[in-house]
Prior knowledge:
The structure holds 2 protein chains of 2 kinds. Chain A is about 65% helix and about 10% strand. Chain A is an alpha/beta fold. In chain A, strands 2-3-4-1-5-6-8 form a 7-stranded mixed beta sheet, with helices on both faces. A two-stranded antiparallel ribbon of chain A has the order 7-9. In chain A, helix 15 crosses helix 24 and helix 27 packs antiparallel against helix 28. The longest helix of chain A has about 45 residues. Chain B has 2 helices and 6 strands. Chain B has a 6-stranded antiparallel beta sheet with strand order 1-6-2-3-4-5. Chains A and B meet through helix 4, helix 12, helix 17 and strand 10 of A and helix 1 and strand 5 of B.
Amino acid sequence: MAAKVPATDQAADRAAAVLNGQVSLRVALAGQPNVGKSTLFNLLTGLSQHVGNWPGKTVEQKTGTCHYNGTTLHLVDLPGTYSLTANSPEELIARDYLIKERPDVVVAVVNAAALERNLYLVAELLPLVGRLVVGLNMVDVAAGEGVKVEPQVLAAALGVPVVPMAAARNQGVRELVDMVDRLARGEVPYRPNLPEIRPDHRGVLDEIHALVADYVPAPYPAGWVALKLLEGDAEITEIMRGCLPAGRWEQVHAILKAHEDAVLAVASGRYDWVGRMIRAAVTRPRAGQITLTGRLDRWATHPVWGLGILAAVLGLAFWLTFSLGTPLQKLLDLYLVRALARTAAGWLAGAPPWLEGLVVEGVLGGAGTVLTFLPILAIFFAVLALLEDVGYMARAAYVMDRFMHLVGLHGRSFLPLFLGFGCNVPAVMGARIIDSPRARLLTILLAPLVPCAGRMAVIAFLAPLFFGQKATLVAWGLVAVNLVALAVVGVLLNRWVLKGERAAFIMELPLYHRPNARTIGLQVWHNSLEFLKKAGTLILVMSVVVWALAALPHGEIESSYLATVGRALAPVGALMGLDWRMLVALLTSFVAKENSVATLGVLFSTGDQTAGLATALAGALTPAAALAFLVVQMLFVPCAATVAAIRQETQSWGWTAFSVGLLLLLSLVGGVAAYQIFH
Amino acid sequence: MTLELTTTNHTVRLSTVPGGESVWVQTLQGGHHFLSRLASLGFTPGAQLRVVQNYGHGPLIVALRDTQVALGRGEASKILVRRAAGGSDGG
């Protein structure tokens, strides 16, 4: 392979600029998943970090700064990727950044306990970047598994600096930053030992290189482009097809066609290189020695015991959420939202009634109520982050994979969906842990079909009013209807709507390790902040709009625009045996599912008293109509907070509208079917 | 154990290899995207791997290149592996 370190002169120029007083470095963190890269990034940047999305992508982008000895490091956390081939959006983002933005130093974070596979990414990075430091992380975890790595031996073999670290224990991090600084200043020798292709493919690589070299667009290195063509990289193939004259492209294409399996030879070449690098540097435990992870996995991945452990873990998570989160939510509601509402009502006593209504009922009653769910959400976020950080998430995905296949999903989708039983918002946001974009979208679209605690509260209140003794049976039936709908919709979407091949289930099972409080804390902090931002913007707007529709023009819901809409929909309601008041109750549940009970209370004008409402409702609804109402309530459009989360996670109003439309249709079909069957 | 496919005496699909046995990757079948993903994880011809868990249904766990990887049964059946002469060597 003719790969050279590209733009070495450029890097040297930058180093000189640093010495001339420009002490500002752009540093990229690269690494595979499960190497502790986020922990290191959090340690370096703390609360200075900014979390957003990569331009035009739904992949999270984290940037931040770090100061050391008068040098300012501007850090970018690249997405965790196993390689730099165009296999996923993450890989494209990572390599585009390295090629186009040319950071001064790249830190390759590697897991000392899985060095062989981790150095594969280093083999891909070295020909692409100016200067690279290897952060040999998790040396403590490796030692626990009986793996010993000699950093100096590894550094000598690679020809680049290697810094041993245990970021989760804050060990070696200072040394790493110091090495980055010194490397940028040119104080450390840098003679990388570059990987080469297997000898049987060297000829064909040279041939392609000669054909394309004059046509490779800046800033791509020609040698690298030739290699990626041989690997069959989709993006680079597309670019070069556009850049090469037609005749020359035919030549290149013919060669590539004759070497379609070259991807295996290129990967083998890199692994041969990795093998040479680690031969002297790594001592592995005796074969057959059972490690901690092996012992735990005998239970955690067992087809029977694994399910039991998963059930226990989830039971604990829900117990924690509701024994800690629910009381906190009630306190927030009482001492924050209601207290604020009282204060506001006092201040606005002399103001026009619509203003008081807007502030007290629209803003505080809508977005304010949604805000009180923050403690519950924060606990869910913490549970997700903890299970992921400790390494258990992959095991949960493994034992659930068989079952998730039934709805066209993989095991990774199970946990986010399951959290939906608490609240659909963390379910939608939790779908981020799914690596395939297609499976992520499907999970987001299915999440609102999981009956959340809000809907269950409505059922718990209304089912006894309607069905007395049979309430429990009805409630379980309703949950079953939702889950069956989820499975059917999953199969249908998979088949007819979502394009592209279903991603293969290939997932690393990382070693178990001690969780890092800072990593979990920052994750909870960022997710909570995002939710607060949504509550202050999109959710606020939606709740004010629903309030205005319910209050205008005369300040009474009975004569409001919303009631007009409800009456206009009466023909649809008639198919389900529901009058306009029931439809209005459903429409108000858009702000928060619990609202439908309050609306029914107002519309059947008995105040909020259970006994009165029960009699009034029983008079207005036949049992079949009551059942239809509950079915619709369970399947109805997601609440405002969930819609906001779907918009954010899909980055698409189109898919958000699709989700709302799908559930609207589904709930109406369900309601009509329930009424017509039991009528 | 039934062999679904026999190219040489000891080449079988990874999905049929029992837990505890060590085998060598012979070749991969499937689309380019699939090959590329597996190759970057270390499933390259000649690589040694050990089947950690295979209950005959559901996904498998294999250990290769310092890592444990969970593989769907369908994915595992596209990986052809060479067994040691005489079958199981106990890994």
